Amino acid sequence: MADNTRLAALSFSGGMDSTTLAAHYDHQGYDLLLLSFDYGQRHHRELEAARRVAGHYQAEHHVVDLTAVGALMPGSALTDLTVDVPEGHYAADSMRTTVVPNRNAIMANVAVGIASARGAEIVALGIHAGDHAVYPDCRPEFLTALQACVTSALDGFATPVVEAPFIHGTKTDIARRAAELGAPIALSWSCYNGGAAHCGRCGTCVERHEAFTEAGLLDPTEYAGAA
Amino acid sequence: MADNTRLAALSFSGGMDSTTLAAHYDHQGYDLLLLSFDYGQRHHRELEAARRVAGHYQAEHHVVDLTAVGALMPGSALTDLTVDVPEGHYAADSMRTTVVPNRNAIMANVAVGIASARGAEIVALGIHAGDHAVYPDCRPEFLTALQACVTSALDGFATPVVEAPFIHGTKTDIARRAAELGAPIALSWSCYNGGAAHCGRCGTCVERHEAFTEAGLLDPTEYAGAA
Question: Could you tell me the domains of chain B?
């Protein structure tokens, strides 16, 4: 294998944020190592979206099977079919039921291990300020603590830098950045319900549509309900 | 489900250290949630040993399938059959090839997520001072950084304490503690080669036998070669 100093490993859900993240590192000239995670999420369609976006960038893409992990974590609306996906605005307290505890820490640490073994320079996460209220493992404090943990866990071995270039920006900033970079947002998937089209009612649909509207851009998403 | 405030989730390989760890928390009156990880390790026999030890304690036990993760991490003698398992003493530089980068961080973070979802009070790791030279993710600095990361990742959600009661002790101390607690060491598995019996030559076999000898205890292990 050739020198991989310009390889960036991305935690890549196939949603709007990670699609824009792929565009960001592609634009910077990195080879992309796109890592999607199957943790038994109800919105399994995001993995098909991830394949389509990876194809767009002709990038190396793996769907990492973590279904055994998700199966042992009851109580989240994302993985537990006995818990309903809440509707309404993302910031609402009800979105708390969509938390899968430590999810980003698990996915990021898997990405870090693979990145170290493969010699990738960067591990990148698509987290942003709109995630902060609901998801503690999307906050700047988490990113700092994660990098410290990675540094100690890999002392003396290839150690990627963990980056989250959108962490201080809003979803609207991501919509703008996606447009600037020509990211294939129409191929991406956000909806937490796993229907044939975006539902238009769950927190991520509401947030996705709002981002395009606030950015003054056309939302390329087809919604089943009013977003 | 009943109140789980006395539930301890253990990263549980089925080796001597984690078998003694199970004995330690069983002795303290915790219910045990034993989590073994299948990351495609060559010494897959440790998972059978884990099942036997879990049976001894009549404990809840899961083998978490992380083979998809191991498959994406080439270069370690533990997972990559093109890399030989080194022989000789554990502290030797050659043991470096047995590192699976970020392995403990991955397993610990999975255990933390499951523990949080299940309301377990503790996540416990069997790491000890003998691991420190070779494996950075077994050192006290790592444990401190991991706890900080866990605390930030789970802010506002059930947050287990990460413990490693043997971290400042030696393998010999663990052999003594195992004997005190009547831990079923004969059921456990250490050898990095996946043969029918412990090989007696790899680093973990040498270390295991040395621990019993130094503790003045009979080693219950049957070795294929001289240990």
Answer: 7-215 (3.40.50.620)
